[in-house]
Design goal:
Keywords: Hydrolase, Metal-binding, Nucleotide metabolism, Zinc. GO terms for molecular function: adenine deaminase activity; zinc ion binding. It comes from Extensimonas vulgaris. The chain is an alpha/beta fold. It has a single domain, classed as TIM Barrel. It contains 17 helices and eight strands. Strands 1-2-3-4-5-6-7-8 form an eight-stranded parallel β-sheet. Helix 1 runs antiparallel to helix 15 and helix 5 packs parallel to helix 7. The longest helix has 19 residues. Bound molecules: hypoxanthine (HPA) and zinc ion (ZN).
Amino acid sequence: ARLPELLAAMPKAELHIHIEGSLEPELIFALAQRNGVALPYASVAQLRSAYAFSNLQSFLDIYYAGASVLLHEQDFYDMARAYLARAASENVVHAEIFFDPQTHTARGVPIEVVIQGLHRACVDARAELGISAALILCFLRHLSEEDAFATLQQALPLRDKFIGVGLDSSELGHPPEKFARVFARCRELGLHLVAHAGEEGPPAYIWSALDVLHAERIDHGVQAQHDAALLERLARERTPLTVCPLSNLKLCVFASLAQHNLPQLLAAGLCVTVNSDDPAYFGGYINDNFTQLFAATGLGVPHAYMLARNSFEASFVDAGTKRAWQ
Ligand code: HPA
Ligand code: ZN
């Protein structure tokens, strides 16, 4: 088969997807209308035309504005169902989905509304589409550690509905160690731990995500390229990197996909995976990420198998399921 067909058809896991980043402009407008929320854009086309980013922060400003239409449990359900249907159609058999509760609780939406809606979508998608899905609660790193602790406290009655915690939002100026104590608490609670690090931030942020937070996976991590000792460690420990090629392109982390360093990271022996990050904003779901990256960099069939296999190795599914999938 041709490479694009193989990339689309191969079973894979998606491990770096922000559910609020799967909110398509059409759904933003439909929810705005349903909920009586005023948007600063006149049309779907006008909103879409605002999707031109120069760095992470320029994206986050629009991403948080888009999430303002989410008010009721059904809104969170509809958003997650739409993503899971799309993911299943792209042969994603397992998804570990980030959500940002503070984006919603800050607007007065109770955390139960957020988590119950997302969880119900995961349960129904499993039954109706056969896709397995789990939730990872992300703390917003531009807010305080105290705010993260309060969010964790609010979420704990729903502890059985998420498998871990992560760290996202504005990276520069907000190093992982700012969240040392809340991650230590999450570790005691037996939650899985991941963190965005080395998207725009320096290799030092990856080191502290590993050594201070004890992150089991690094989200993005592409700046590890500039630190040979770090590359050696990530390869030796097989710490997964959840890389998002189209996100890196659209946020100007790399000037072109041809210059993306995923091929070098893979060649250095790291457990690299391919993911979509915020597909509604970055112009492609997971298979577009694979296809465009492979076309631009000349990766081939053996790399496709390696990346699919890595996605299962890097996932938090139980060991038996992992063996069956790999
Ligand atoms: N980086 C940091 N925060 C985010 C991202 C990202 O790529 N996507 C959504 N929130
Ligand atoms: Zn991300």
